[in-house]
Structure to design on (131 residues):
């Protein structure tokens, strides 16, 4: 089922990237930093992703430049920031990446590629280590 934001981008998007981040941990995630070069936010990253919930955001490119976005969220109050990154434009292949520096969390992602609009789904999972 499409959300309102997905539907809007599918109909009106111009080289857009729809991003959904699922917080599948037991802690809230908090926005640390957001950067966007050469594009615009269609929907900005929210300040918090509650435990067990998800958030949506989206970017579009402007003119001939690729949109390049980087968003950092930390898990809990003391966690190291997890970096979520994506690029999309007219001339280059889309690029998506994520990095969890503290190795306590795993981030998986999948993409859905359309002709000009892309959907990226990130899942943040807590790793349980048994000693």
């Amino acid at each position: 089922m499409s959300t309102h934001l997905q539907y809007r981008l599918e109909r009106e998007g111009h080289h857009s990237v729809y991003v959904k981040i699922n917080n599948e941990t037991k802690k809230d995630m908090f926005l640390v930093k957001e950067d966007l070069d050469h594009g615009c936010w269609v929907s900005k990253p929210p300040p918090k992703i509650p435990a067990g919930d998800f958030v949506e955001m989206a970017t579009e490119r402007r003119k001939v430049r690729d949109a390049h976005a980087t968003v950092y969220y930390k898990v809990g109050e003391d966690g190291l920031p997890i970096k979520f990154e994506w690029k999309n434009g007219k001339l280059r292949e889309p690029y998506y990446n994520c990095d969890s520096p503290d190795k306590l969390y795993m981030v998986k992602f999948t993409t859905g590629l359309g002709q000009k609009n892309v959907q990226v789904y990130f899942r943040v999972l807590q790793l349980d280590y048994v000693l």
